[in-house]
Records
---
Amino acid sequence: MKIADVIATRQKDWKELESEIHKIRGKSIRRIPPEELLDFGRRYRAICSDLSMALSMGFPPETTRYLHQLVADGHALIYRSQTFRLRDWGKVLFLDVPARIVTEPCTWIAMAVFWGLFLGSMLGAIFLDNFSAEVVGESTLTQMESMYSEPIGLGSTEDTRSMMTGFYVFNNAGIGLQCFAYGIFFGVGSLFVLAFNAIFLGAIFGHMLSSPQAGNFVNFVTSHGPFELTAVALSAGAGLKLGWSIIDTSGWSRGDSLRRNASEALELALTASVLFILAAMIEGNFSPLPLPYEIKAAMAIICTILLLMWLSMPWYFSNRKRRSLSSKSREVSDAA
């Protein structure tokens, strides 16, 4: 069959689909009659087949471009963003995202690397002479000691706390963005940034814990630590997932594999961003307050418990659903 005959035969359906796209665009899916949706779906599948045929048979370029545009417009309507529903957002936030974090191997690798290097560096700074100075430099250690030489809260005002909150958000976001974005270099970039921050922070923590300013330092960093340190590791986990998708493509091209995994990696990165912002809010507004250490420690415990509760929600609801189904099954069995 000649190409011109195929185009002439199918052109009517193409025009009808184009008309349906203009008719449906802007409407809520729930307001479209089911028969119209079924008809649209049938035409969309047909146009996808026509595009495949056009590419294989070598249709004229203008016809192929036209079919490409029809397929793209139809795809955008079918997979367009749904209207906001609080229940759907709640499911994503409290079930889908924490489940992905817990089951994602890259998250666990990043956590292990960060905490292993952080604790190792901290112990090295405590027990080895000149370790912290060689890692971060004498000037940095002198600056840290000067920062915490006075009790927490002296000179702290609402204006300075607000200014420092903005600084902490900017600084933390920069670290998280580096951990995530450098993952494009096959994940090695994320591991490098993660390792650098873990060793650097560990050396500072170890030095300050063994210094005369230890009490002031601990009083300041305790309350926001759980959110901030978790966010660093989570950002690197997102970058690792991005990089691993280029290495292990599961049969896809590297570009397609990257696109397929980018959305999940971005979810992890956005979650880390939220934790960074929460940590900055606490660091800027709560940590500088002249409060007893017990209150600061209580805040850290509360933050840790909230994190663990959030991460365990998918497991909790899964078990509850399983118990509910089992109970219904027993009721049906007893009734029979």
Note: The first helix runs from residue 3 to 24.
---
Amino acid sequence: MGEVRHKSNKPLQVNPFKLSQPMGATLAFLGIDKCMPLMHGGQGCTSFTKVFYTRHFCEPIAIQTSAITDAIAVLDGGDYSIVESVKNICKKVTPSLIGLHTTGLPETKGDDIRGVAGKVDYPLVWVNTPDYEGGLESGWALTCQALIEQLVKPTDDIDPQKLVILPHVSLQPIEVEKIKQTCEAFGFNTFALPDLSTSLDGHLGEKQAALSSGGIAVEEIQQLGDAALVLTIGDSMQKCATALQKKNPTLRHQHFPHLSGLEASDSLLALLMRETGIELPQTNIVRWRKRLQDAMLDSHFSLGQTRCLVVGEPDQLAGICQSLYEAGGRVSVAISTVDSPQLEKIRAAKVLVGDLEDAEALADDYDLIIGNFHCEALAHRLHKGLVLRGIPNWEQVGNPLKNDILYEGGAYFLFECANAANAMRHAG
């Protein structure tokens, strides 16, 4: 760990790459089967989010808005708009759940969405997600916590074969699927909350649906309290595990800051082996561990002479930096969207909360950029290498199937970074 300078001294972000809390909430609700996210705010906020995710996932995104204006927010408080929005939604479709989340306008006014939710005669989960606080990661985590607190039924029963995964927002759908499959290989009946692995994984459905298709069912969320074990992936998700343990104090919790790289992957496998008594994982898991070891050796020569800038959400930053560190890569600068205890543990020479203006000011410190699509213009202007990671990525297709975690994904990630670094050097 190197120099840590969490706070930015600037009064505003000049060239931001962070996303808002309501966008994180929307994405979390899209991980629930037949859920309709309802964004309480201006129509433009919802339109922006819909277009943003449609471009990233190359999928139709179901989302509705209460469409309040500043005048409505002040005079009415938005209560009527929410109730009418629910009525309009139910005239057209029959969602399993409505996910009500706020934006800055009603939060500034001080709307009581909990009180309004009590007036709605329809399955609904509410969460306060003002966009002037936090970011994508916290919006997702707050929504997951609300889903647990408002839907999961208290119990003192335990199903010894049941396991719950609480993944952070930056895990792609295929990565959630890989974690589930690894746990299932040890005999666990595995659930993820939220679960994008079967909703926004890029599968071709029978027809375009007006609701989210796939994800964890509301009935399954209600019954999560009897799980024997809950795994949190990412520091942002720890409060969600606490909320689930309140539903059943006998439920056990194991936390992983991330599942990137050899060391973290070994930790998950070691846990599953202890829990089940299995002394040796499946042959394909063992084989992928050997492949990752070889990938670390093969990529070491390129990554060892490459200085990297990594930008992203805190939990994602921690995983990427650890993967590069294990292979001998040098992360000279890591820039986070928001502050987090996770930043204290990041393997980088310099860690700060900031924006791409800060990245440009530090241009002499790195050769390769790893970050979302907003970094592309910066990379071209500064003649740096670029590996696109995070949301959004509007330049490439196949985002839901990008896998950087566990043994298999770790190998692919190192190869991609090493190849990008080599291409950059040849171009220069």
Note: Residues 159-282 form a domain with the Rossmann fold fold (CATH 3.40.50.1980).
---
Amino acid sequence: MRFSSKLLLCTMIVMALAFGFSGFYFVNYVFETSLLREAGQALDENSILCFAFETAALNVPAKYDILQNNTVEQIASNLEKGGQSASRMLRFSDEEKNAIYASIGFEADSALLGQTDESTRTYRTISMNGHYYIQTGSSVKALDRVLYLETLRDVSEVFNERALGFRVYRQVTLVMLVCGTVIMYLISSWLTKPIRLLTRATKRMAAGDYGYRAQKVSDDELGQLTLDFNHMAEVLEENIGKLEDEIQAREDFVGAFAHELKTPLTAIIGYADMLRSRKLDEEKSFLSANYIYTEGKRLEAMSIRLLDIMVARHGQAQFQEIQAEGLFLYLRDMFKTNETVNFVYTYDNAVIWAEGNLIITVLINLLDNACKASEPGSIVEVIGKKEDKGYRFLVKDHGIGIPKQELQKITKAFYMVDKSRSRSRNGAGLGLALCAEILTLHNSSLKIESTLGEGTCISFLLLETKKENREVWNEKNND
């Protein structure tokens, strides 16, 4: 059952119970009040009749010492006739509570009379011949006799009014329930509209429409729930996008890796088969062996780079304080034998917080790429300078440059801007990917600025070894 239907059903049940109990209480309250009023009037009438009887008895000629039964009957008959317009019925009984006179139709039993004595007046409600009466009883003292007077007052109209009240109230309740059902249906539909919109959004998202958002139609708790749901949907869509990008990147990685393996392996297998299957002169044998050696070295370099990427991605780096000057001196010694380009080193001395061997790997890859992109005799600048937020390393060449549309892709594994040029220099497109992974461990990233035909500047920022910087790094790394 839908929530709106449950809400409607529960409301109707509560309304029906409320109308039922309140109506029953109200009608019965009016009935009891009317019945008490009639009982009071019946008792008053009984008292008046008693007084009238006593007065009439005093006016009877004194022929006897006591009041005779026939005189009682005569007085009672006169009292009954005097109240015919009020449908008065009465009964007189003697000291033994035996009836002396009774009106026609007075068929009530003597149960009430049995409870009546000289000092007590009684009354009760009885049903007789399809009518309802209030029966009263009291004692009458006349001429040394104690008689008992009972009266019947017809109160059927009160009971008829109660029945009419219940009938009218049932009709009113039915109309109110019908109107209440319509009103509550509209209210429940309005209240549950945010839930229906959320349900629709959930189904749309389950069907693959992750960009669909639920419409906010209120500012209450359900409105806040809608905002939270939309925020969750945005995060979910973002995560799904990341997963799709990651899956695509893995597929591209596997495809590129297979392609990069195929090229050197084809050359190695072809030249090895040539050496194995035929006899070549010394020059051709040397060239074949050289191709095998060159492509083997490229495979070796590629496997080492892949291993480094995996280690950088999953390994735990040991950070410590490092003199920036030591890194530049190491690079100068390592590349001093490279005579194809001219290296210019400019740096400020500072103490940085990093893993030394990994940062050296990053710098070596950047210098190696700069050499490959530069023409012989070009200048490659290696710069280190202090900034407000830390220490920045820059490697700047004046080579072929990188197209703007390629800048966002060059840190992906196996991606090469100029594949023929890179392969000719034993490149596999893994250097910058490795650099990006290492710098991620240092909470840093590559900043690449390049102009096609003019050169490229690649830089990254490391924290100086200050207490607050180390605390920031530790907090990020722990997260």
Note: The longest helix spans residues 221-277.
